[in-house]
Amino acid sequence: MIGIPCFKSEEGRGVFLGQNASYVEAIGAAGGAPILIPLIGDEEKLRAIYVKLDGLLLAGGGDVDPSYYGEERHPACSKVDPLRDWLELTLARWALAEGLPILAICRGIQVLNVAAGGALYQDLPSQRPSEIDHTYHPERPLTELVHSVEVEPGSRLADIVGEGCLAVNSGHHQAVKDVAPGFK
User: Rounded to 5 degrees, what are φ and ψ at 41?
Assistant: First the structure.
């Protein structure tokens, strides 16, 4: 049972909760049972869902509110969802404290770092300029490999994909700035 928190989408006919189908399909293909976690603000009900999980997938999405890591909001920080931030940070803190496996992707990496005490660049282009274009482009396929990263020798990731350079996609403007204690 792998929990995936939902995101909120406001469309013409109302407010919808959902998640990218590729996450659900990947968990199923790997033999897991994906469980979409609704955005609920009740800690007791959230805990009732959490205790049934064998793992947690923190997925991509909007920006994490900088108040969670003690900073004022940068003008480029947008698309903050207070309920999603609270829910995902709560789940991540529980999972870290109790050793529940977590797979964090995109925004999920940022949530995980903040939950563990780290901070973020709120806007890479203005706070840490680079030749690498990390910006999300709607016309660019999510499968397009944009730049490479160096896989840390001896890490869990190296055990899975091997050491050396790994090509990755990129579509974000926030990123880890201050790495949380105990993280690399």
Answer: -100, 10
Q: Looking at the DSSP assignment, which residues form a beta bridge with residue 15? A: 10
Q: Which amino acid is at 4?
A: I
Q: What is the number of H-type helices and E-type strands within the chain?
A: 6, 10
Q: Do 153 and 86 contact (CB within 8 A), yes or no?
A: no
Q: What is the DSSP letter of 81?
A: -
What torsion do the CA atoms of 123, 41, 37, 116 make, to the nearest 10 degrees?
A: 50
CATH superfamily, region 2-178: Class I glutamine amidotransferase (GATase) domain (3.40.50.880)
> Residues 66, 74: contact at Cβ < 8 Å?
yes
> How is residue 173 annotated by DSSP?
S
Which of 4, 53, 51, 48 lies closest to 26 in space, CA to CA?
Answer: 4
- Is residue 61 helix, strand or coil? coil
Per-domain boundaries in the chain: 2-178
- Tell me which residue has tokens 């609920």: 40
Identity of the amino acid at 115: A
118-136 pLDDT, tens digit each:
999 999 999 998 888 887 7
| pLDDT tens digits for range 15-29 | 999 999 999 999 999
In sign, the C-alpha dihedral spanning 118, 122, 126, 129 is positive
Look at strands 175-178 and 164-168 and give their pairing. unpaired
